[in-house]
Each structure stands twice: as structure tokens, then as C-alpha cells.
Amino acid sequence: MAPSTSSKTAGNGLERVRAQLITSLHLGNLRPGDRVPSVRRLADLTGMNRKTVHRAYQTLAEEGLLRLRPGSGTFLSSGGRSGEDRPGAEELLRAANRWRAEAMALGVSPEVLASFLQTCFGASLRGVPVAVIECNREQTGLIAEELQSALGVHARSVSLADLITDSARALAGSAAVVTTDCHRTEVEARASELPVHTVALDRSFPRQLLELASQGDVVLVVRDRAFATPFRRLLEQMAAPPERIARIEVLEPHDAHVALERGREATVVVSPLVERAFPWRLQEGRRRLSLRWRLAAGAVDRLRVELAFALALRRGAVPAAVVRASTH
Helix axis angle, 137-151 relative to 299-313, nearest 10°? Predict the structure, then answer.
């Protein structure tokens, strides 16, 4: 039975809108979670002023009867337990159909889309074995550590030299490969059976070092001195002043200790990979900083999507052990 409306409430815009919506619920014209008529449509149906309907919708949203979604419309609350507000079935179906249509326009089947969504937004990347390949252990270690922390993948450091020497052994058990654009061509040539993804590094770290070098010498302590050559090349590509580049020396822990014990004046920047492996006690008064070179903004999220999609496409071809690892 529809609720009665007194003459008093009939003249009240808020109560008239409330009664209209509740009547629609009673008659089955609307269900919890459904989208309600637009302000213009309800004003036309009831003869009320649009501003009156708009104010009523705002008030009913504050009371919890409605949900306002900018760009999508106004919806009846679903009235879940403990105030929980869940989308209605029709709303979810519309969203699912929209995703499916957009995916099919991109040439992605519904099955691959479902697998992709589960992998990308669930915990399905956890434990997936990924080989991180670079020309030095410093970069592979930093990249692998961040990917493992952010995505939950099992990131394994692999040197470019090992990949060149024996690619089958270097990539054994891996579901995907991650490298930087510097070595993508070399890696793709030797990892043709696996998807190869690239990540970019944030340039704020080299900029910080160049700023320190404007004030004096800098000793950068890293796990692998092979890092020095590509890092110097990067600084040159950034058009850094040659005199500043010359003030930055990249050393491994033992060599750095020797240089500093001899009284060399320099700001010491220690890689987090070194800090965890070696106890560092510098002479009092020495300036020591801990700076971390991180992946560029958005690199991890982009990789999450790429890995999830590659795994979704290869579900039938990925070894059973990899599939099991990716779902635990």
C-alpha cells in the first residue's frame, strides 16, 4: 500500500519528494540501489520547482536515503546492515556491461577481462616470480625490493651478464621480466618466451646528489661499483655541469671506508642496500645522508596492470607452479 500524504506534507517539497520515492519503492518501480529520476525529470513529473527538488535530494542524501554521485546521478541507498551502503544489482550489471563493452572494443575477451580484474585488484600477483634484470646489482636490488614490497611479487635480481651467458638458466621459473629502457632491446632478444616490462626511475635522486655536489664532494656508497658507469651516463644525459659530476664518486663499502678514514672531506650518501648489510660508523662531524632511488611516480601501478594482463593472457600457458604461486 502506498503511504498516505496529508495536505500539510503535500505543500512541503522535502516531504513530497520523500513520499514520491517511497511510493515508487512500495509499488516496485524503484528498488534499493536504483538510480532515481533526475531533478529535471522529477520536477516535470510532480510540477515542483527544480530548486525545490534539488534541495530535497540534498537533504535526503544527508539523511542517508539517497546517494549523490557526481557525474553518475542520484541513487537510492541499499540499506545494508550496520549502515553499509552497497550498490544494487542493476547498478552492478550496468557497470559490468560497460566494462565488457569497453574491453571487447579493445579486443579483450570477457574471460581475459575477468582474469585480469581478479589478478590486478586481488592478491593474485602475490608470489608471482619476476626476474629483475639490470647491468649492476645496485639497481636490480633496489627495483626488486620496491616491487616485492608494493606488488607482493617474488622479485629476483638477475644480472645482464648472466642473462647473456645463459638466458635459460637466468630466467628459469620466471613468469615475467622487468628491466629499464636502457637494456630493453638486449633483454627482449634473450627473453623471447616471456613478457618483458620496463620501469622508469625517479629523477629526484640524481638531482639531490647534484645539489649536494654543488656544495662539495659526495661519496655515494653502493653495493656494486658497476653502478658508477650508467649513473655517470645518466648525469651527463641530464646536462649536469661536468664539475658537479666529477665531485660525485661511487664506491663500494670497503673502498669508501678506506677513503674516509684517510680524512677525505665529503658528504656520505649510503644506499639502503648497503645500510642493511654493513655496520656504518662514521667519524663524528661527518655528514651522512640516507637517500633512496625509487621508481618514478606511476611506474608501479602501470606495471601492476601490465603484469596482470600478461598473466591473464597466458593463463593456459603458464606453468602450474606459477599459477599456484600467483593465487596464494
Answer: 80
What CATH number is given for 7-89 in this structure?
1.10.10.10
Neighbours of 107 (CB within 10 A): 7
User: What confidence tens digit (pLDDT) does each residue in 242-284 have?
Assistant: 999 999 999 998 888 887 777 678 888 989 888 877 766 655 5
Give the separation between CA 33 and CA 194, rounded to whole angstroms. 44
**What are φ and ψ of residue 91, in 5° steps?**
-65, -45
Which CATH number is 129-201+297-326 given?
A: 3.40.50
Q: What is the pLDDT of residues 34-50, one digit of tens each?
A: 888 999 988 888 888 99
User: Smallest Cα–Cα separation from 128: which of 28, 57, 195, 193?
Assistant: 195
How many Cα atoms sit within 13 Å of 143 on the Cβ side? 28
Other C-beta atoms lying within 10 Å of the C-beta of residue 4:
7
